């Protein structure tokens, strides 16, 4: 079972989730799952197509926004727009959750959210964003 880590009331991140976790995500009130992990990073990870099918079967919306290394401006914008448009809580995942929270937090910074608040949200979820977010 995956470790869903609450960042805010409406956004959580997780290390790699399994297809079976989609029903749990729906039961916990998530409405959108964002997959930031590129297909093929690990031979044992489920494909984005399999994750999307499981998410949709559980009644969840799904966005595939794979990030290799640091997120591009287009990836940051895609995640920011999807989170803002979601009609409820969002769960984003990658291998460890780091790319997901970094991509989200850069988008929030660019939208004007306070850097220190975002760093604190990250720390509470187990991620250090202090070296990632612009000052």
Layout of secondary structure:
Layout: E1 5-8, E2 11-14, H1 21-27, E3 30-35, H2 48-57, E4 61-64, H3 73-85, E5 89-93, H4 98-110, H5 115-125
Parallel strand pairs: 2-5, 3-4, 3-5
Antiparallel strand pairs: 1-2
Helix pairs in contact: 3-4
Characterization of this structure:
This protein has 135 residues and is an alpha/beta fold. The protein has one domain (5-125): Alpha-Beta Complex (Protein-Tyrosine Phosphatase, Chain A). The chain is 40% helix and 17% strand. The chain contains five helices and five strands, in the order ββαβαβαβαα. A five-stranded mixed beta sheet has the order 1-2-5-3-4, sandwiched between helices. α3 (73-85) crosses α4 (98-110). The protein is globular. It starts with a strand and ends in a 10-residue tail after the last helix. 39% of the residues are buried. Residues 3-110 form the Beta-lactamase hydrolase-like protein phosphatase-like domain. InterPro entries: BLH_phosphatase-like (IPR005939), Prot-tyrosine_phosphatase-like (IPR029021). GO terms for molecular function: transferase activity. Keywords: Transferase. This is TIGR01244 family sulfur transferase.
